[in-house]
């Protein structure tokens, strides 16, 4: 169970607990679109939204915080008018110079100068009136309060006369329960429509205006509770959001039903642009939130499904009465709320234009130099005019910034196709674009083709050869036939340094297709040659592994002389002296040296055993010969690095030279 705080036009905030499934958010039907931009608002509730197209401002009333927030069209806050307890309905003057707001918390109507967004006047309308909704007709401000209609006449305020408040203007037989929602239109300044948003039957009333007098001309019922209503610019029709999944249209002259518009279930908002374009909204977690209808059509041209910006399942939802148009009808504004009670102003550009769906289909693979076919379809909720075209751009290795293939005509059913012969191999992209028009937004789509290329050959010498430590070796790569690119990169990767391969040379091959690089070897090393390919030749690489023997040397310490015994030079030790053998290797963490000792018997050598000894960080190992010593005994020793046995595998196995020694008295 989670709770969302939902603002309504008749209360500061209403908590609604809704049990919902954990199913994933489902995207809208074909033709839906996400709002073009969104900005979080610093409010705790939202009751009304008004757009000032002259100063490019959006005004939002926040009754919980008691303030009006003014933003630019992108939702950036430009000013705030505070100290308006329970502020409710908003209305603009005809010239957009003043914004009027109903403030039930102190039974007043305030006036805000729209250019500077500063409060200019506060008009008390009577203790306990609790005004809720406003409709501006010339210099007269009609307001709904307590089941009745009142009038604030400020026509003489500029000349020093006091504003005049008149209460009880509604028809005596009216059955409205709460403060009526009032609607008027520039095209019908003598008509006022009142809608009861509190009753379950949805009472509707039309009044004619004569000075400060209202005469009821029609009475009707929507049949269920009404969340929002709006009158068309000419004053001829009233559209009501009745809480189901249908919005009803009524003739204002007699309040007979004259049309029907479909939304998601839970219709809660309606707004009409000056040109007659209709936007209807609904409280919908998993369905489209806003539907746009062009004037005279009962089929939506555009749908918007808000994303989920909260921490729970289900998308953001539209607040009741949360839709408002820019005067030109070029932008539609909506206020949504997420599961964390964060409100956002969403700006939708060109919502009355159909959102096309454009597809592109190209073969997954193709042969270079041979014709291929690309096809697709352009569809929308509104038909495209005859002669509609799409533009095509091909991007490949030879035209990385794209090459225009011209414009292609779209058939009556929206299909198009064209043939093309790609001469560049590798990844080829066909991007198809529709620029948009009077009735349609733009669209683009693309598809990729893997076009074949000639196979490049690349080789590298010296593979599996073993070299001594510190040897400088010349490696040579050979590149076969290619189209244009003749550059090869050479990398060296010594074992055990953890740095990966390092680029050691980049250059063009010579006339024989060869390029060489010298590498000094201190460890087993992998050398890699890389050719990146070109528009008609595939990439290629070649690897060579070469071994590098460890550097091993031993110094004999403690002898008193050297001398030859037979054909070999021996180190001579006194029997009382323990020989010491200092072995040095190229260092590596955890490395050991293996020492082998042999003795001679009747001309042959026999092992006395092997043993591993640690090397210090500099690569030095000092070992004393502590075995029982016999005068005249001939021995020899040597140290070795054994790949895998000496604690690591970064060098190839290497043996030091034999050191011969004997003992005397």
UniProtKB/TrEMBL annotation:
Keywords: Signal. The keyword Signal applies. Gene3D superfamilies: YVTN repeat-like/Quinoprotein amine dehydrogenase. SUPFAM superfamilies: YVTN repeat-like/Quinoprotein amine dehydrogenase (SSF50969). Residues 1-29 form the signal peptide. The keyword Signal applies. This is Ig-like domain repeat protein.
């Amino acid at each position: 169970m989670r709770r969302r705080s939902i603002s309504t036009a008749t209360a500061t905030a209403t908590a609604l607990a809704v049990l919902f499934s954990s199913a994933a958010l489902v995207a809208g039907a074909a033709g839906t679109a996400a709002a073009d931009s969104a900005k979080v608002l610093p409010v705790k509730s939202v009751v009304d939204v008004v757009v000032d197209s002259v100063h490019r401002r959006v005004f939002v009333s926040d009754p919980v915080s008691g303030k009006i927030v003014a933003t630019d069209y992108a939702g950036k806050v430009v000013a705030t008018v505070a100290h308006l307890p329970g502020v409710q309905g908003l209305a603009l003057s005809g010239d957009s110079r003043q914004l009027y707001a109903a403030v039930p918390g102190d039974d007043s109507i305030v006036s805000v100068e729209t250019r500077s967004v500063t409060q200019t006047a506060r008009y008390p309308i009577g203790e306990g009136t609790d005004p809720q909704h406003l409709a501006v007709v010339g210099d007269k401000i009609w307001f709904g309060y307590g089941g009745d209609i009142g009038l604030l006449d400020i026509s003489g305020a500029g000349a020093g006369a006091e504003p005049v408040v008149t209460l009880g203007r509604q028809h005596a037989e009216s059955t409205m329960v709460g403060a009526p929602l009032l609607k008027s239109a520039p095209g019908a300044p003598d008509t006022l429509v009142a809608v009861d948003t509190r009753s379950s039957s949805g009472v509707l009333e039309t009044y004619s205006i004569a000075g400060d007098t209202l005469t009821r001309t029609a009475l009707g019922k929507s049949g269920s509770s009404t969340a929002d209503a709006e009158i068309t610019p000419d004053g001829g029709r009233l559209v009501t959001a009745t809480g189901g999944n249908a919005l009803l249209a009524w003739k204002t002259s007699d309040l007979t039903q004259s049309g029907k518009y479909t939304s998601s279930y839970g219709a809660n908002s309606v707004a009409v642009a000056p040109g007659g374009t209709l936007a209807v909204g609904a409280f919908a977690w998993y369905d489209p939130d806003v539907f746009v209808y062009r004037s005279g059509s009962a089929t939506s041209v555009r749908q918007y499904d808000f994303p989920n910006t909260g921490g729970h399942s289900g998308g953001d939802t539209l607040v009741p009465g949360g839709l408002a148009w820019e005067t030109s009808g070029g932008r539609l504004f909506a206020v949504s709320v997420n599961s964390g009670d964060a409100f956002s102003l969403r700006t939708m550009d060109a919502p009355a234009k159909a959102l096309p769906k454009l597809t592109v289909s190209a073969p997954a693979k193709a042969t270079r130099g041979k014709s291929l076919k690309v096809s697709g379809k352009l569809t929308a909720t509104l038909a495209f005019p005859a002669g509609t075209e799409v533009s095509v751009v091909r991007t490949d290795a030879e035209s990385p910034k794209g090459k225009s293939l011209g414009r292609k005509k779209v058939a009556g059913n929206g299909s198009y196709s064209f043939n093309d012969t790609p001469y560049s191999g590798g990844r080829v992209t066909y991007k198809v674009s529709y620029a948009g028009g009077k009735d349609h937004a733009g669209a683009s789509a693309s598809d990729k083709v893997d076009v074949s290329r000639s196979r490049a050959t690349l080789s590298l010498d010296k593979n599996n050869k073993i070299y001594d430590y510190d040897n400088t070796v010349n490696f040579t790569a050979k590149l076969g036939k290619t189209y244009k690119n003749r550059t090869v990169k050479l990398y060296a990767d010594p074992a055990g340094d953890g740095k990966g391969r390092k680029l050691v040379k980049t250059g063009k091959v010579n006339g024989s297709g060869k390029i060489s690089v010298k590498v000094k070897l201190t460890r087993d090393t992998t050398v890699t040659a890389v050719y990146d390919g070109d528009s008609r030749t595939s990439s290629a690489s070649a690897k060579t592994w070469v071994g590098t023997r460890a550097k091993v040397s031993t110094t004999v310490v403690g002898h008193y002389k050297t001398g030859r015994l037979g054909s070999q030079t021996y180190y001579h030790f006194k029997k009382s002296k323990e020989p010491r053998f200092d072995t040095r290797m190229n260092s590596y963490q955890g490395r050991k040296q293996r020492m082998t000792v042999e003795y001679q018997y009747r001309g042959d050598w026999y092992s006395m055993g092997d043993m591993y000894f640690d090397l210090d960080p500099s690569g030095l190992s000092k070992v004393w010969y502590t075995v029982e010593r016999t005068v005249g005994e001939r021995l020899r020793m040597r140290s070795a690095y054994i790949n895998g046995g000496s604690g690591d595998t970064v060098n190839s196995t290497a043996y030091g030279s034999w050191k011969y020694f004997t003992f005397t008295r």
